[in-house]
Amino acid sequence: MNKNLLTVTETAERIGVSADTIRRWEKKGLIKSTRSEYNYRLFNLDEVKRIKDRQDGSHFPIKFEVLKSKHKTKYTTIELFTGAGGTALGLENSGLINTLMVEIDRNAVETLKINRPKWNVIHDDIRNISFKGKSVDIVEGGFPCQAFSYAGKKLGFEDKTKGTLFFEFARCVKETMPKIAVGENVRGLLRHDNGKTLQTMVEALQEIGYKVAYKIVRAQYLDVPQKRERLIIIGVRNDLDLPILFPKEKDYVVSLKDALRGVPKSEGQEYTEKKKKVLELVSPGGYWRDLPVDIQKEYMGASFYMGGGKTGMARRLSWDEPSLTLTCSPAQKQTERCHPDETRPLTYREYARIQTFPDEWKFAGSLGAKYKQIGNAVPVNLGYHLGKSLIAMLENKPDLETMVEIFPVSDEKLKKTLFD
User: Fold this and answer.
1) Are 94 and 388 contacting, i.e. CB atoms less than 8 angstroms apart?
2) Of 287, 290, 289, 295, whose CA–CA distance to 316 is shortest?
3) Cα–Cα distance for residue pair 246/199, rounded to 1 Å
4) Which site among 26, 278, 364, 389 is 20 to 30 Å from 97 CA-CA?
C-alpha cells in the first residue's frame, strides 16, 4: 500500500486534528478519499496537510489560471448547445479546433460572436439543422435533460428518443459519425427515472455504432474553484481501437480566495434591506441554521418545518473552500451565494471567475442574462481537461498520470450499475 495513504484515524493522529475534522473536510469536498481492498476510506497525507495549512491560515496560495495549451492539434469538433462557450473555449484551449457551434439563445450567441468573431456559430433551433456531409473528429453537446417516452422501447433509436434534445445530439452523431461523441449533463441524470433515461441514451449510442462509457466528473478537483459535478458520457466508434479516457482528479482544490484575487469590479444583484440584515448575522461558510431560532422561523417561513437540510438558504460562502455550485442567480432564496465578507450576492464577474472564464470574456444582454449564461456554463477549465483526455484518446496515447481509463458498459454492466 502507498505509505502516504492512511485511514481517517491515522491521518488525524499524524496531523494533530480529530477524526471528525477529517470527516468534515471530506464532506465539504476539501479532500477526497479512496477505498482500500477492505473498503476502508484512505486519505492522502500530503493533501490533508495542505488543507490543514489552509485552515490555519499559513498556506501558500494555489495559482489560479485559465488553463491553455501552447499546442494546436489537427482534431476538429462540432459543439452543440454551446451556451456562453464554457466547453467550447475549454476545448479550444486544450488544442482542439472548433468548426461549428449551435445555440438558440440570442444573448449567448451574441456573447460567442463578441469574443470569437471567427467561430462558425449558427443561431437556430438545432431541430432545423442538418449535419449530413460534415466530417469531424468529435461531436460534443450538453443537451438539456428531458423526459423520455418508453412506449416503443424495442423499436429502435428514433422511436425511443425522438422529441427530446438528446435525440438531436444523437442525430448529429449519426449523421456525421465522428470518431468520438461526448455528452454532458447534470449528476441527477445518473438516477433519473431509476436510471432508465441514461440507459436509453447509452443504448441509442450503442445502436448508432459506439462503445460507451460514462463517469461523474467533479470540477473542484480539476482546477475549478467550485463544487460542481457533471455526468460525462463518451462514445468511441466501434471500428476504432481507442481507449476511453476521463480527466483524473488532482489532489488539491482551488479556494475562493485564490480564485477571486484581483477580480475586476462589475455590477451585481443586490439584497433587500430586510434580507441583508438577516445575512449579516451569518458567518463565512454558515447558513440559516446559524441564525437565532426566531429569525430562522421568520426567514424560512414554511420551509422551516419541512424536511431536508436546505443548506443553500441564507448561505454565505467561505474564502477557504471552493464555491458551492453556481446557479442562474446568486440571490435565489433556495440557493444563496453570498460573498464571504461583504453582505451582497456575488457579482457577475466573480461568477465568471468561479466558472474559470477569462476576465476578458464579455457577456451580452441584461445582468440577469449574464448570470444565466455563466451559471448554465460548463467551467472552462473542466472543458480544457476533458479536451486533453479526448486528444489523448484520438492519439491513442493515454497518460494515466493525468487520466483515468474507463471501459465501455456492456448490457449486463449497464443494468447492474443502474438498477442494483
Assistant:
1) yes
2) 287
3) 20
4) 364
289 and 412 assigned to the same domain: no
308, 344: one domain: yes
Lowest mean pLDDT, pick from 63-77, 118-132, 294-308: 294-308
Active site residue 172: no
Three-state SS at 348? helix
Q: What is the pLDDT, as a whole number, of residue 197? A: 87
CA distance linking residue 1 with residue 348, whole number of Å: 46
Q: What is the pTM of this model?
A: 0.87
Chain segment 378-407, per-residue pLDDT in tens:
999 999 999 999 999 999 999 888 899 999
* Domain encompassing residue 47: 5-56
> How many Cα atoms occupy the beta-carbon half-sphere of 331 within 13 Å?
16
Q: What is the pLDDT of residues 292-304, one digit of tens each?
A: 999 999 998 888 8
For residue 22, give the CATH number of its domain.
1.10.1660.10
Answer whether residue 63 is part of any domain.
no
Q: How confident is the model at residue 260 (pLDDT cuts 50, 70, 90)?
A: very high
Q: Are residues 135 and 236 in the same domain?
A: yes
* Tally of domains within the chain: 3
DSSP string, 351-379: HHHHTT--TT----S-HHHHHHHHHHSPP
Distance CA(75)–CA(288), nearest Å, equals 49
- Residue 284, pLDDT > 70, answer yes
Q: How confident is the model at residue 38 (pLDDT cuts 50, 70, 90)?
A: confident
402 found inside a domain:
yes
Place of cell 428531458: 146
pLDDT mean over 88-100: 98
Domain presence at residue 64: no
The burial of 10, by beta-carbon neighbours within 10 Å (0-12 exposed, 13-18 middle, 19 or more buried), is given as middle
| 62 part of a folded domain | no
**Exposure of 269 by Cβ count < 10 A (0-12 exposed, 13-18 middle, 19+ buried)?**
middle
Burial classification of residue 28, based on how many CB atoms lie within 10 Å of its CB (0-12 exposed, 13-18 middle, 19 or more buried): middle
The pLDDT, as a whole number, for residue 415 is 55
